Amino acid sequence: MRFSSKLPNIETTIFTVMGALANKHNAINLSQGFPNFKSDQKLIDLVNNAMNNGYNQYAPMAGVFKLREAIANKFDLLYGTSYHPETEITVTAGATQAIFTIISTFIRKDDEVIIFRPAYDCYEPTITLNGGKTISVQLEAPNYSINWEEVKRKINDSTKMIIINTPQNPSGSLFSKYDMLQLQALTKGTDIIVLSDEVYEHIIFDGEKHQSACLFPDLKSRSFIVASFGKTFHNTGWKMGYCCAPKELMEEFKKVHQFNVFCVNHPVQKALADYLQEARHYQELSEFYQEKRDFFLNLIKDSRFKFTPSKGTYFQVLDYSEITSEYDVDFAKRLTIENGLASIPLSVFNENGLDNKVLRFCFAKTEDTLKKAADILNRI
After folding, report:
1. HEC readout, the chain
2. Which of 194, 52, 27 is nearest to 116 (CA)?
3. 194: which strand partners?
4. CA quadruple 197, 198, 200, 203: dihedral sign
5. Which of 77, 289, 302, 351 sees the fewest Cβ atoms within 10 Å?
């Protein structure tokens, strides 16, 4: 059968490759970004209760209204600004679906979309599927800082969207207030849409503050904010997220959303609406994960790996340049096969496969798992 691939250059994702390798060699898996501990039993019970109480049919297309109200209240509590639950918030089948739908709604053939690399791997394929062109700006290791003059040079009449991710996966870096003000200044007076991927908004360390796009008035007027319940509440397999945007942008989003998934899991929405009534369920998350980050880094402080502590997310980048000059993909595979520890090489997310000799490790794991991983790293 003859056909033409719409994504001819896309191979199996590095997450699938490393996950399969970890399974094959019974390795400790710090590659993929998911916790290996349970979600809160209270939330699980709320989902069960919702199922038993009959919330098993289609939910409203934009999401259960009580959940959208809870999301609006969360924004007001955290950022002193909010979104109207009726017209400016939509619950989605995870953050990835929100990102796919936003790009599909607004990007047409030959439109240009600026992304910052290393970039999460769902952005570029979605841009390509919609006929757009990805324009990359490489973040500068080891601090993953942004060259805003380069960004300015790459904006032109074809630029229709800029995608940012803060806290940033895979680097663990943050967009500062300065960065957000630079972005706001560059987009002001344009028709550029900003897609702000903020799925790790509640996982920020060392007293830093999350600089959400909603805190900057002109940015808010042109931005979609994408968030994830799975990342926040340790249940990535539920695939629950949401996005927020001004009414006129959200109206366009919902035109596509209704024919993409129409609606998402009803009992989980009902449970989350109740669970979000207690703000501590998300406000205590930074402290929880900082303890895990610090625990892991303290265990490997005398190893041959170099690091700058992650500023956010539940990922830590480790520099192995004093250990070997191997290509990072090769070293990651060897570390999995020979040493029994799986990680993610960052070059696959960089412009032209730039190899800075670093690997990403997920520390959203139990202390026992982190101890075993650290023992391996300390022997290398």
Report:
1. CCCCCCCCCCCCCHHHHHHHHHHHCCCEECCCCCCCCCCCHHHHHHHHHHHHCCCCCCCCCCCCHHHHHHHHHHHHHHHCCCCCCCCCEEEECHHHHHHHHHHHHHCCCCCEEEEEECCCCCHHHHHHHCCCEEEEEECECCCCECCHHHHHHHCCCCEEEEEEECCCCCCCCCCCHHHHHHHHHHHCCCCCEEEEECCCCCCECCCCCCCCHHHCHHHHCCEEEEEEHHHHHCCHHHCCEEEECCHHHHHHHHHHHHHHCCCCCHHHHHHHHHHCCCCHHHHCHHHHHHHHHHHHHHHCCCCCCECCCCCECCEEEEECCCCCCCCHHHHHHHHHHHHCEECEEHHHHCHHHCCCCEEEEECCCCHHHHHHHHHHHHHC
2. 194
3. 162, 223
4. positive
5. 302
Q: Is the pLDDT of residue 274 over 90?
A: yes
What pLDDT band is residue 34 in, cutting at 50, 70 and 90? confident
**Phi-psi sector, 29: left (phi>0), alpha (psi -120 to 50), beta:** beta
Q: Which residues contact 341 (CB under 8 A, 6 or more apart)?
A: 27, 28, 30, 335, 373, 376, 377
Q: Is the pLDDT of residue 11 over 90?
A: no
Domain ranges of the chain: 14-32+284-379, 56-278
- In CATH terms, the superfamily for domain 14-32+284-379 is Aspartate Aminotransferase, domain 1 (3.90.1150.10)
- Give the least confident one: 5-19, 221-235, 276-290, 333-347: 5-19
Residue 308's pLDDT band, with cuts at 50, 70 and 90, is very high
Contact 30, 342 (CB under 8 A): yes
